[in-house]
């Protein structure tokens, strides 16, 4: 084998190795990103359903705790955004949770806490890209979403699971 062929062979191996390393890095990156998004989707689904169940089946305290827990989950996701759950997406969810906490506190007579939560909702709304971040708009959207949630509120006719149909 000539010196020229050895040099060509050497650089061919180096080029193949470099391409392999780059391809391995990118496939590893996208696999990790995919796993992160899947994990985030599972967490959002689980805790979102938990909030709906507690809203419909639990007492005020259980509902409040589920909202606060969900808020913590969203804070974790907000710190590690993905292609699906970016700052705007998580900010919308956080804003709606703050609004729901505000309503809960107001119904319980905790006006100061209610105002603090609503101020947090309005402040968080600034990160969502919404044009209207008024108290009325946020509350209206939140109530509409609750009516059409994963588990809609029960009507008085469906309260008794043992009722004859």
Would you give an account of this structure?
This protein is mostly helical. Helix content is 75%, strand content 0%. It has helices spanning 3-57, 60-79, 87-107, 111-125, 135-147. The protein is elongated and about 90 Å long. The termini are far apart.
Element-level helix/strand string:
HHHHH
The CA-CA distance between the termini, in Å, is 90 Å
User: In angstroms, what is the radius of gyration?
Assistant: 25 Å
Fraction in helix: over 70%
Sheet/helix structural class: mainly alpha
**Uncertain spans:** 156-165
Please provide the count of β strands: 0
Summarize the biggest pleated sheet.
none
Strand content: under 5%
Round the mean pLDDT to the nearest integer and report it: 80
Question: Brief overview, please?
Answer:
The chain is an all-alpha fold and 165 residues long. The protein has helices spanning 3-57, 60-79, 87-107, 111-125, 135-147. 18% of the residues are buried.
How are the elements arranged and paired?
Blueprint: H1 3-57, H2 60-79, H3 87-107, H4 111-125, H5 135-147
Helix pairs in contact: 1-2, 2-3, 3-4, 3-5
List keywords for this structure.
165 residues; mainly alpha; disordered C terminus; single chain; elongated
